[in-house]
Predict the structure.
Amino acid sequence: MFKKSLIAVAAASMLTLTACGGTGSAAGNAGSDKVTMGFAQVGAESGWRTANTKSVQESAKTAGIDLKFSDAQQKQENQIKAIRSYIQQKVSVIAFSPVVESGWDTVLKEAKTAKIPVILTDRAVDSSDKSLYKTFIGSDFVEEGKKAGDWLVNDSKSASGAVNIVEIQGTTGSAPANDRKKGFADAIQADPKLKIIASQSGDFTRSGGKQVMEAFLKNNPKIDVVFAHNDDEGLGAIEAIEAAGKVPGKDIKIITIDAVKDGMTALSNGKINYIVECSPMLGDQLMDLAKKVVAGESVPERVVTKETTFTQEQAKQVLASRPY
Ligand code: GYE
């Protein structure tokens, strides 16, 4: 895999849980009506993730919620450790963005037994027992993949002959990688000219996207389109395409998902052709849901984020005012 994973393994063993403004008392929440949230974040793999972390931390502060935050460095075992630690600390609510979809039932049952409600943030789990969490707030990733595919179907209308697509997937087994892949594949079925000739994970990182694209370029003489599951991977692919002496956005078209600042800048500069927005600004809604859940109020079981799409022209118009 990537060299980075060695560093991640080393760093994972030093995983720390930081308390932001909390009392840190072993008595946890007892005797206080302040809401304490344990938040187990995926990592810091992308511009999206950085913006999401900032949103969660700022919204907790504004909402007066005592936030305990941990970074799992894209490792499920670290997230499970963090969740167990939050259970031990008797936080009032646990929120987390599951790095992959499977393998959560045991730890979620432990939280349920301890009567600590869980909110899924950004990514889903595949547990069939829906009572293991209270709600799931985040995007519709299948829809995002579909929007990316619909754009390509329309853009390729006048193309003669096969349109060769390479796909740079997100983290293997993660909800956004599974769902974006599916949504895109479904949409491009509308035109038999559109063919995915290679598909591999870039782990949602810029370096991963670059490495995967380098290999794709080496092995495939004719690549017309890159579909990257996030902006960072697309930005890495741009580096590889330029290093190979080709022009991103022209010789090879690029479609990505997220619409973070760096992605939108590349879209405005013509290096990316289309971006499907995925909003990381989940903090305010998450804190609202957390307060309700802790107060025993009912909440919708699914809260879907509102999102749009951007062409190059649209990106130029909004770039200056993008908040992240
Ligand atoms: O698209 C990607 C990040 O789960 C929606 O994770 C999120 C994805 C996002 O690393 O940039």
Remarks:
- Residues 160 and 248 are 20 Å apart (CA to CA).
